[in-house]
Amino acid sequence: MITSDEKINPFIPPPSLDSHDLPKPPARASRTGVRNLRPRFVSPTDAPANSASFGDLTQEIIRKNEYSYVPLEAQNGIRILHLDAGKDDDPIQCRLIPCKLDTAYEALSYYWGTDEPENEIKILRYEGTKGSRSILNIKHQKFFIRSNLFSALRGLRNPETPIVLWIDAICINQEDDDEKKSQVAMMEDIYRRAEKVLIWLGEPTNLCPSESAFPFIKKVCDLRQFDTLLKPKYADDWESLAKLMRNVWFSRRWVVQELALAREAILCSGTISVHWDDFADAIAFFVLRYDQIKRIPRVLRPDDPDPLREIGKLGPNVLVDATSNLFRKDGNGDVIEHRMTLESLVSTLTAYEASDPRDTIYAVLSLAKDSSRPDIHGGNTTPTPNGSAAAPVSDGDELHNDNHSPSNPVLIEPDSFSDSNLALHGISPDYEKDLMEVCKDFVNSCITCSKSLDIICRNWAPVVKKFTKLDKKDVSKKMTLEQKNWVTKRPLASWMPSIKGGAYGAPQDALAGRQNGDSLVGPPQRQYYNASFGIRTNDNDDYVKFGIMEEDKEFFDPAPREVSNGTLLVMGLEIDTVDIISSRCSNGTILAEALNIGGFNPNDENIEDVPDELWRTMVADRGPNAISSPKWYMRACHHAIAMSNNGDLDTKLLIDQGRDSIVVEFLTRVFDVVSNRKFFRSANKRRLGLAPPKAEKGDIICILFGCSVPVLLRRVENGQHILVGECYVHGMMDGEAISAMTKKQLRREQRQFTLQ
Predict the structure, then answer these.
(1) How does strand 106-110 pair with strand 410-411?
(2) How far does the chain reach from its first CA to its final CA, in angstroms?
(3) In whole angstroms, what is the distance from residue 170 CA to residue 168 CA?
(4) In this predicted model, what pLDDT tens digit does every residue of 32-47 receive, in sequence order?
(5) I want to staple 567 with a disulfide (CB 3.0 to 4.6 A). Which of 90, 197, 384, 547 is the partner?
(6) pLDDT digit string (tens) for 280-319?
C-alpha cells in the first residue's frame, strides 16, 4: 500500500504537489493482507448485477456535495486521493491533489452499485488566496459516495499513515462533461501506470465468503496438496470459491480494462487480500478439474451452474483467459504489445455488463490492437494458433480456392494498423452518438479491418433497457445518460445480433447453462467455413454499404451530419428457401420430427441406416476446434439413437448418464451445435440444414459475399430484409454454390439486399 509519511497539519493549507513531492512506491507488493482494525461494514454484493460506467453518476451526488473541484491545469493531469489514516469508525477524511501521471499511486477497481450516494466523507479544501493563509480558510467539505466505495475506503484505510489512491468517482469531476470525456480517454494510462490495482470485492458475507475462500485459494495453488483437496471434507471450501466467482465485481465490463492493464493486482475483501495471480491459477485449476469437483457431495446445489462445464463460462474464468492473452508485457508488467482486435474483444467479453450500452464498445476500446495508440503496441502481426503468419483469403479475382478445407480453417490477416488506418477504422468514445450509431461504427470497423461480414452473425450487441419517450423540450445538456432517451430510441438493426442469442445468453443467464448452440462463424480471424468461396468485402465497393440519413436538427446536434438510417446494403446470392422446419431443439433434445426431416425414422427396425447428411448436420460437419468431423461420429450416432427413448434424442440426458465415453463425446458436440436450433429442408434442392430459433417457412437461404456461412433473410416492407441469422446448409458450407459458377453467371445471379 502506498503511504504518505508527511505530517498533515490541518492549520496549514497543503501545497500543490508534483510527482517529485510524493513518496516513491515500495517494491512490488508482498502477498499479505490489507491491515484494518475497524468493525465490519455490510457489503452490497447482493445488489443487482448492473454496474455503472464512469460517465453516469446521478445528479443527486452533485446536489448534495459541498466540495467544489479546482479545474485540472495540466493537459495530462489527474487528481489523486490522499486518504488520511484512521481506525474503526473514525470519520473518513482525505485530500484531492492535482498531479501528473508519473506520480506514485494505486488505482481502485470496484463495483459502483445502484444505491443512492448517502455515505459522507470529508475532503479537506483550502479556500484562501495566495499570500494570505489562515486557519479559517481550512475547510472539511462534505462529499457523498455510495456504500460499496465507502466500505472500500474504510477497508483499505491504514490506521497509522495516509495512503494514495486514484478512484474514478472522486478523482474525476463528474459534473464537468469536458473533464469526464478527457479523463475517460486517459483510463488506459491511469490504470497502466498505477503501481497496483486494488480490487475491492466487498466485506465478507455469505455471498462473498472471502474469509474462507482466500485462504483456500492459496491451498489450491500449492500443487503438492492439490489432489488431496478433491475430497468431501473440502466441499465447503470449493463451494466458497464458487460463490466468490459469482461476485458482482466480475459482471462489470470496465473491469476488463482495469485489470488487464494492471502491473500488479490484489483482490481485497474486509481485512484480507489475495494476489490476482493466485486467484487466476485457482480458477484455472477449478475449471480444469470441475468434472471431479462437481461430484463432491454438497458442492453442487440446485441453483448451481449446469454440470455440463458451464462453470467455465462464468465471468472470472472468461476474465482470466482474456487478460492472459490481451497483451505481451515486459518483466515489470508494462504493456509492450496489444494482441486482440476490437472485434475479438467485443465478441469474447459477452459475460460483462455495462449500464450505458455504448460502453459495450467503449469499455474495451483502449485494449484493442486496431484502436490503440501506436506508442502502446509494438507490432502489426496477428498471431495464429500455431504462431505462424496469418494466411490471407483469396482476393476473389478467381473463382477457385484450394487453400481451404475443413481441417484447415481460413485465417484472415487484418490490415496493418498505422495511424492512417486508425483514422479510417478507429472509434473514439463519443457520448453524443446514440447506441445505433455507435454500433454501426463498430460493425463498420470490423468489416473494414477483417474484410469479412462475419460480425453480423456474432451475438455481441447489448440488451438495452426501454425508456419512456421524452419530449424534445425536456432534453437538456445536463441530463444524465440514463435520461437521454435518444440513446436507445432507435432499436438496433437485425444485423446487430443481441448477446441473448449467444451460446450462454446475456450475462445474467450464465448460471442457467447453455442457451443456444455455438456460433458457426468461429472466432474472429479464424473462419470455420468458406461459404462465400474466399470473396472478401473489399473486393468490390458495392459489396457493403451503410444506409445514411440526415440527423434531426432539432435534436442535440444543431449542425447536420450523416448518421446511419439503420440499414446495411450487402451483395450475395439467393440460393433457396426454407420449406419444412422442425420445432426448436430445446435443451439439446432432437425431437422425432427433426430426425424425420433428416431422413431417419426412429421407428425403423434397422437403426444402422442413419443418413450421412443427418449425422453430419447434427455436428455441423465439424468436430471440436473446427477439425473435420471424425468418421467414428457415424458409429457413435447409431449407438446414441439406439439408447434414446420415445423417438426423441435427448442429448443432455444421455450425456449426464455418461454410460459410454465415446458416445458422450459425440453427443457433447451435438449438444453444443443443435441447442435451440431448428432442423429444416430447403424447397428446391431439398438440402438439410440447421436454422436459428426464429426461422420460419419461406425464409430465404442466402450466401452473402464476405460471409463465411450461409444466412437466412426474411422479406419485409419496401423490398427490404431482416437478418434472421446464420445457418448450416449441408453441402453449401465450403463454397460449393459459387465454385460451380462462371464469373459471368456470378455477375448475373448476384443481387443486393438491404438489411434493416
Answers:
(1) unpaired
(2) 53
(3) 6
(4) 343 333 333 333 334 4
(5) 547
(6) 999 989 988 887 888 887 665 545 544 434 666 667 877 8
